[in-house]
Amino acid sequence: MNLHRRSQRWAGIGVGLIVSAAGAALAAAPKPPPTAPTMAAVIADSVAADWRPLDPEQTLYLQLEGGRVILELAPQFAPAHVKNIKTLVRQRYFDGLKILRVQDNYVVQWGDPEAGNRDQARALGAAQPRLVPEFSIGYDAQSPFTRLPGTDGYAPVAGFAAGFAVGRDPASKQTWLAHCYGALGVGRDDAEDSGNGAELYVVIGHAPRHLDRNIAVVGRVVQGIEWLSALPRGSASMGFYAEPEQRIALHSIRLAADLPAAERVDLDILRTDTKTWNAWVESRRNRQESWFKRAAGFADLCNIPVPVRAHSAR
């Protein structure tokens, strides 16, 4: 009986030592890092100062039969081309012209079907017929830029500036807009100065970054990309429409600043120079939604869309 009691006593001491040791181990163990926010949480936690209004003076409305495509111009990166495009728009140059090409996983392209016919081509009016190439532009240390973590195969450094995805070369101090989904570019011939903004395209497929620094990118779609990406594909070479009757008419292109306020769509763009933007990037690099079981730890430049929301959501 005494032996039994001693066994119980020692057993109790042993259990107590085990519990104490486990408790000490738990107390010494590092706390797990806090869970990073999801994309939805980042946007929900944002404040008014994290957003900027879309500038009507740099906003184009492309009207198709199906709906409106809203594009933001980027004069910081291609000032001469943007100026020429705005001149063409204000002259109603694009009204009634055609979508000539819809190449699957690549681009939608529009312009004057008779551009190569001197006698029938639509007049450019006050717009310049040729422009100095603006495939890239210089920058200095004060130029706004938020670097993207990780490497980029198409630029020494990649990140975001003024709300746009950009590449940078610190050696030459040049920067350029990247060919991400929705990018707005200026068509050209072989000559570097042959693009004037009269023929434009929008990327509707996997980012063709090999085009970077070979052509002027002047902006991007911020709303309504579906009206372009869902168009019938052209069956001729490079996605051009084989027959003239297959071409899709542009109803109009207008500058938002030229329209009455009641006809505008007021949008806000998430700024790319804030802590909220950094959290947004991290939420794309390491997805926190419950469906994801493994974090990628990486997102390429064109896999980080810049959020857009209605102005009244602020």
What is the compact description of this entry?
The chain is an alpha+beta fold and 314 residues long. The chain has helices at 2-28, 39-44, 79-90, 226-229, 275-285, and strands at residues 51-53, 59-63, 68-73, 98-102, 107-111, 137-138, 146-147, 157-161, 164-169, 174-177, 183-186, 200-203, 217-223, 248-249, 252-255, 267-270, 308-310.
Task: Please provide a written account of the structure.
With about 325 residues, the protein is α+β, with helices and mostly antiparallel strands. The protein folds into two domains: about 35-55 and about 265-314, no CATH class; about 55-265, Cyclophilin (Beta Barrel). The protein is about 20% helix and about 25% strand. The chain is built from five helices and 17 strands. It has a nine-stranded antiparallel beta sheet. Strands 6-10-9-8-7 form a five-stranded antiparallel beta sheet, with no helix packed on it. Strand 2 and strand 3 form a beta hairpin. The longest helix has 27 residues, at about 1-30. The chain is globular. It starts with a helix and ends with a strand.
